[in-house]
Amino acid sequence: MNWGTELWDQFDKVTDHTQKGIEFCERYTHFIKDRAKIEADYANALRRLTKSYLPKKKEEESPFTVVKSFNDSLKEVADIAGQHELLVEQLKQKILDEMAKLMTELKIERKKHIEESKRLENQLQAQLRTLEQEQVRAEETFRNADANLNLSRAEVEKTKNMMHQKAQACSECKSSYALVLEQTNNHQRDYYNKLLPQVFQSMQELDEKRIIKIRESIKQMSDVERGIQPIINTCLDLISQSSEKVDHGEDSRRVIDRFKSGFVPPDDIAFEDLGNEDTKSIGSSNSSKTREPTIKSSSGTTKGPKKKEKGRLAGIFGGRVSNGLFLCTYITLAIYLHLLVH
Q: Membrane spanning segments where (predicted)?
């Protein structure tokens, strides 16, 4: 299909179509530019994110496998960010630069073809005006000659020479008009069958060039992104492998190694007969020998509080009391213990 033969009388619509094609090309270029910006922002955000979660100093690194796996995955995410940065670079170099060059060429070529069309049209219009002027001059010559001939019938002898001159002038004018008419027809024929179709053909090639370039660009965009996928897939595989190194049992053992104090739990507390002074003193002595519980602090293992008050319950009844008061108290305590047992 050829625009020159099929659209010979639709030049304005063809020029409008090619203009819209260039505008679409610009719109597509803006899409690539915005896509590259999004990829760049995404890569920067990934890098900032991984940097904020990685340990700042080597001594801050954790011995636990789950933390090590997470840190390794963060490093792989940073490598993925690097691949997106590479994608941005290739989008700019291989697509954006080429599309910018293409749009410049399209605008220049389109302007040149439109100017050529106007020049050819002006030449045709000038030839038509020449034909029109020649036609008017021939008509005036024939009218004048016809008037003179009518006048010369009354005086044939007197105007014989004048008649011959007028007839010759009419013949020359007729020949001139025929020549200009032939030239005009040839020019018009060339204009519609050769010159204008060439302009249309150039416009068609211009538009097809735009379409082909955009088609290649779309494919190239997918190829560029597909090119970074192997490395991204490798990073993802390494993240998966890192996750397999997580050992919950090992981490539990490390918790024991890290926080174990080495102490053993205290022995059972012996029963003290609070009514027997000898037993009370022995119990107090035994109580004082009981191991103190240990308390783990942030700075390490420390001993518990200082020795408890010896025989605290016995101290309730310490001091000198009368035998009656002591007996009463003893009986009350025995009843209380009996109730507790039963």
A: 313-339
102 to 16, 37, 109, 317: CA distances (angstroms): 18, 21, 11, 106
pLDDT the model gives residue 125: 92
Could you give the angle at the alpha carbon of 204 between the alpha carbons of 100 and 210, nearest 5°? 20
Domains, in order of start, for the chain: 3-253 (1.20.1270.60), 264-341 (no CATH)
- The confidence band for 180, taking pLDDT boundaries of 50, 70 and 90, is confident
Q: What is the pLDDT of residues 129-170, one digit of tens each?
A: 988 888 888 777 777 766 554 544 555 555 656 666 666 777
> What own/partner pairs with CB < 8 Å and gap ≥ 24 does 33-41 have?
33/96, 35/91, 36/88, 36/91, 36/92, 36/96, 39/84, 39/85, 39/87, 39/88, 39/91, 40/84, 40/85, 40/88
pLDDT at position 136 is: 85
**Residue with token string 């410049």:** 104
> Among 203, 172, 171, 192, which residue's Cα sits nearest to residue 127?
192
224-to-11, 107, 219, 230 alpha-carbon distances in Å: 39, 28, 9, 12
